[in-house]
Each structure stands twice: as C-alpha cells, then as structure tokens.
Design a protein that fits this description.
By secondary structure, the chain is of the alpha/beta class. The chain contains 14 helices and twelve strands. A seven-stranded mixed beta sheet has the order 2-11-8-12-5-3-4, sandwiched between helices. Strands 1-6-7 form a three-stranded mixed beta sheet. Strands 9-10 form a two-stranded antiparallel sheet. Strand 9 and strand 10 form a beta hairpin. Helix 12 packs across helix 14. The longest helix has 28 residues.
C-alpha cells in the first residue's frame, strides 16, 4: 500500500512538473506577442519622456496622432497614411490584365481604342464609345451630346517634328455622348469611373448635367494660373536613368509646363521638389498652400504622378503614348463621409476631371482610362480645379509618358479656355 501510494505521489509530482514546464514554454513562446499587445494598450505618452513629447510635437507627429489614444491605433493610422500613398494592389492587378505591349489605335473615327482592362467591375467601354449592351453609341457631334463638338478645319495632323509645336487635335474623331446616355447614373459610373472598394459614389455626385454645367474656364492672363507639382516626384519609368530627375515625372512636368506656357499661353508654376515619401502628402500640402498664398492668380493645381501596372500604349499622332488616368478623392467610405476629411470643392473637382475625360474621349479616343475614385481627398480640397493625374506605369518608357503630355496639354487648354 505504501509503495503504491509513493508511486502515485511521484507520478503526480512528475505530471505537475511536466505540465508546468509545458505551460511555461507556451507562455514564453507567446511572450513577445503578449508584451506587444500589452504595450499597444498603453497610452501613447507612456512611451515618451517630456523632452521627447516636446520634440515630437515640434515635428508634427503628435499633432498627426491627435485623438488617437494608444500606440497601436497610432501605428494603424500611420500605416493607413502609407497605404493611401501607395498604389492599391487590387488596382495594380486590375491594370495588369490589360496585357503587355499592345499598341492601341487612337485614329479610327468614332470607334475608340478599347483601352479598358477587365477588372472587379464590367469591362470598360468608354474609350470604345459603347453602351452597356456593347452596341456602338452615336459618335456624332450633335450639340445635344454631352460635349460641344467644337470642330475646326483640319485633322490631328502628322507627328510633330523635333522642336516644332506638338500637334493638337482640331477634329472630333472619337465619341460625343448623348444627353440620354449621360443622364443614366449606371452608364456614367460604369463607363467613366473605377470606384475603389474603399469608397462609394452617389447619383447626385455623378449628375452629368451638374458636372457639365460647372464653368471650368479661365480668362486669358499673363499671371500664373496653374500650379504643377509632384507629391511623388521620384516616380520613374522603365528606361529612366537612376538619379536623373529629367527622366521621372518631374521631367514630364517640365515638358507639360513648356507646352502650356509656350504653345497655349497658360502660365505655369512648376514645383520640382521631391518630398520624403512617408510624409509626402502633408509636405506637398504645405507647399501648395504657401504657393497659393504667394500667387493668388493660380486657379488650377495638377499633381502629376506615374501609376503602377502593365504596359499599355496608345497611338496619338503616330506616337506611342502612355495612357492617362484622372483621379478623385471622394472623402467618403461606403459607410459615409470621413470625419475631419472634408472637401468643399468635391463636385467641382469631379466636374473638372469629368470635362477633361469627355474632351479626351472626343479628341483622343483610347487615351484616357476611367477616372479612379478612392476614399480620401489627396489635397484636392485646395481649389475647385484641383486634379491628380496618373501617366503610364513603371513599365512604360519615358518617351511614351512624355508623348502623353502633348494631348494632355491640349485637353487642359480646351477645358480651361472653353474650346
């Protein structure tokens, strides 16, 4: 009896030690996670000395984290800022489905170029001037259409010789949409916009009669009217020379500014500063606000970017040209407006891009992709005519992207001067 009891006692102690060791291993294995979770629940100031608090406040970090009580939520907010600054993976996949190296003709009258890659929504048909059923729409130039025809004598002309002015389209060769088409919210949404899952859009925001009724024209002036800049000024192209800003989006901006000022008489201030990527939108906003205060004649801001995705080119005046995509921040998620992210000029921004998109469809079919809509505002709250423009991708050559500046300058001229 005593021997059996001793064995049972020894076995029980051994089991207890084994279980204790096992639990200890499990606890230690998860200790970093446990400590991280514990730390994340502490208020942000728990990790900072008074001197550090003052230093960080001077750098604006605590100001950015205002209203955020814990380290984890602060990190989440910073991650969200970074995510907003980067190309969306789902959108990159959507763009990559367009295929590689396809030359899309922009010369076929009324037919368009079919530049729409299939994606989360129905295949894009705006460039091809089709209805949802796939039937070609009326490509005529009736004043009843959504865009005045504005025809002049002549055509798009031959490719511009080096040193000569870029040829501007003077004849409608694409699609002018009817009032009936543009009165259909679903038609407009499907054919002209890509609505990212982070946001939503309401019929009253895409009311074509309202968007086309907004006067986006500007009178001729010898004063600067456009501020051109690059929130991501280091964005380059497939053949860009490393460290050469003239082969990045800054180089595109130099050419666009030259075209607008010398060929179209619209004066431009081109800011070529390259902002640190992690805080690029905040720093760009500071620059924009300062420039607008110094030059009150400026009525347009253009944030010129390069997108990410596949390799697409369009033939414009005989030149291989990277496609253009306009971009609007909607300041809203599917759950409603974003708090403290307001834009009093939201409809004006949409109108400016919508009018440019329709001009592109009419004069340069196939050039312009659907306008991208996302949740935030991307510094578009500064002016009614504020836009963000993506030109090509990292797989386009610099020349293909540079060629896009010629039709872009012409489209801007046609909208701003009411041509």
């Amino acid at each position: 009896m005593s021997i059996g009891s001793g064995n049972r006692g020894t076995w029980g102690k051994g089991t207890a030690v084994f279980l204790a060791v096992l639990l200890g291993i499990l606890f230690l294995r998860d200790l970093p996670s446990r400590l991280t979770v514990l730390a994340a629940r502490q208020p942000l100031f728990f990790f900072l000395s008074k001197e550090e608090e003052r230093g960080l406040a001077g750098n604006g970090i605590l100001r950015q984290a205002s209203g955020i009580g814990t380290l984890s939520s602060f990190i989440e907010e910073q991650d969200a800022i970074q995510t907003r600054a980067e190309a969306d993976p789902a959108y990159r996949a959507w763009r990559s489905e367009a295929g590689s190296g396809v030359l899309l003709s922009a010369q076929a009258e009324g037919a368009g170029a079919g530049n729409g890659p299939a994606g989360e929504q129905a295949q894009e048909t705006a460039g091809a001037g089709q209805t949802e059923g796939g039937t070609p729409s009326d490509g005529g130039t009736s004043p009843e259409g959504g865009l005045p025809a504005g025809e002049e004598a002549g055509g798009t002309g031959a490719p511009a010789d080096p040193g000569q002015p870029a040829m501007a389209a003077s004849e409608v060769r694409g699609t002018v949409y009817t009032q009936e088409q543009l009165a259909d919210f679903e038609f407009v949404k499907k054919n002209f916009f890509y609505v990212h899952k982070s946001t939503t859009v309401y019929p009253e925001q895409l009311d074509a009669s309202v968007l086309l009724g907004k006067d986006m024209t500007l009178p001729e002036s010898g004063e600067p009217q456009i501020l051109l800049f690059h929130t991501h000024g280091s964005e380059a192209f497939s053949d860009s020379e490393k460290g050469n800003p003239d082969m990045t989006v800054v180089g595109l901006g130099n050419y666009l500014a030259k075209l607008l000022s010398e060929q179209y008489g619209i004066q431009v201030i081109h800011n070529t500063e390259v902002f640190p990527y992690s805080d690029s939108y905040s720093l760009a906003l500071d620059m924009v606000e300062q420039t607008l205060a110094e030059h009150p004649s400026i009525q347009v801001t253009i944030d010129l970017h390069r997108d990410s995705g596949g390799h697409e080119v369009v033939d414009v005046n005989g030149k291989p040209t990277a496609p253009i995509m306009l971009f609007n921040g909607m300041c809203q998620t599917p759950d409603g407006p974003l708090e403290d992210v307001e834009n009093p000029y939201l409809l004006d921004n949409l109108a400016f891009n919508f009018q440019m998109k329709l001009k592109g469809e009419a004069y340069y079919p196939g050039l312009m992709l659907r306008t991208f809509l996302k949740a935030y505002r991307y510094n578009q709250h500064v002016l009614p005519r504020a836009t963000l423009i993506e030109v090509g991708t990292e797989n386009n050559t610099f020349e293909e992207a540079r060629n896009a500046m010629e039709p872009l300058a012409d489209i801007l001229y046609k909208v701003l001067r009411g041509k």
